[in-house]
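Appendix B. Worked example

We walk through a single record from start to finish. Start with the input: the chain for Carbohydrate ABC transporter substrate-binding protein (CUT1 family), Saccharothrix texasensis, length 559.
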Amino acid sequence: MGIELNRRRFLSVTASVAGLTAMGGLLSACGGGVEQKTGANSEALRSALPNYVPSTSINPDIASIAGGPDVLTDPGFLSYPSNRVATVSGVPGKGGRYTTVTPLWGTIPPSDNSFYQAMNKALGVTLDMKPADGNNYATIIPTMTAAKRLPDWIQLPTWWNSNFSVGELAGSQLADLTPYLSGDNIKKYPNLAAIPTGAWRAGAWGDKIYGIPSFSSGYVVAGTTFYRRDVLEARGITADQVKSAEDLMNLGKELTDAKGGVWAFDDVWTYLFPSWNVPLKWRVENGKLIHKYDLPELLDALEWHYRLATSGYLHPDALAGNNADGNVRFYSGKVLISGGGTGVWNAADHQSGTAANPNFRRGSLDYFTADGKGDPLVEMGPSTSIMSYLNSSLKPEQVEELLAVANYLAAPFGSVEYTLVNFGVEGVHHTMVDGVPTATEEGKKNVQAQTFPFLASPPAVVSNPGSDTVTKDLTAWQAANVKHLRKPVFWNMNISLPRSMATADAAQAVEDAIKDCYHGKKKVAEVKEAITTWKSSGGGDKLVQWMDENVLQKYGTGQ
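Next comes the structure step. The output line below is what the pipeline stores for this chain.
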């Protein structure tokens, strides 16, 4: 169980961070005369979106809390449901045979293994599962699309939308699902209807629904600022004492003992800069689009981080850019405050931490503003970054059959269907150990979390059987901070820039200068110089103008 859920959370967060720079949606403009797809925030898109109908089949131990439209904490389960409910009546398929391709970062199991056979029997179809090497997926898929030889069902991570030209594929090689899923039509598939609306927006192109979401969440952020809760609380320090950037700097001074081999901080920039009200990329002021590089708040944030880097409170390995051993430093107590994705906050992490120190307990600072005034605001990532698509060559009855299969795959956490999809057959692929599905050797070999769940899956939950403290701490942190989440400009909008602007959008020289600054190697003035060069000769001003004219003015902000 731990392997499946931890990997799922890891992939969810990794995908989120990868997609945070694009913020995903509803138009494609890839150059070369390709017709743009429109529709962001249009009435046509609103009518195309499926109506959200939350599942009531299984009640969590810790309920979700809404923080606003499309903003929702993940529900928590302290144990795996023992009274498993079946949410699908009968067999969803009608005997069809289909090919599928998903990325897999791991060992590809045999094509005729016992798990695939059990799944096909339960689904009533034959899915020829053909997982492809995730490390080479970005080059494998374009070869398929160029030859127009896509499988019947394919998973295309949204952070590769531009690589795969998904906007161009929508409606040509990818099937339009709008007639089957829009509005109340989705009620035919209740488990799909339980996927929040925002996730469907992330798979919409040209006012139409194309993608089927997996691992969606109403609480997606780049990450947070962690601290060693056990160590700090033993010294009488609690997270609520940190209410400003200066509070954090002072805490760093108090915690650092370089002679004793303890530094307060590891890298925190990526997860802390929102405290200065710096957006992920864009802001709109007086109807005008502004890039974060043009905001004085960015420079203010860099000034503080440069001061941190030169204060002696940042671990030398972090200054050197060695992040590979960050967790080891955190577990051993050599570093007490560290930024990271929330996917690391799980049972496996707790086990690793307690192996190093029996008292280990991970905590997270609540969001705060740099000056300690007003309410902090943190921009959300896309509702999902894992999206599958059906082939446009499929007949209507085939599309309906596969949507019925997707409905089975999207059954809620702990259901009969979910247990089979994620753990296989009891007694063959898993056994129940202390109420937790635990993989057998057969299950470890063949039940991969990156196959069927990559085609469709239910919304995310928080569950760490055997480590209830982790689940309680993570859900409590989400509940305390959900009110501070906001949708960024172009939220869940799939925007594929003209290829000529890809370099300007990446702004690698500026990002390198920023990294050198928060590692103390360059001063803020040097970052300003890099930004000036980016704006004039690096295409930055042209990028902002294009985005303003072709996205903001035509389709709005996505908020």
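Two observations about the output. The mean pLDDT is 90. DSSP finds 24 helices and 25 strands in the chain.
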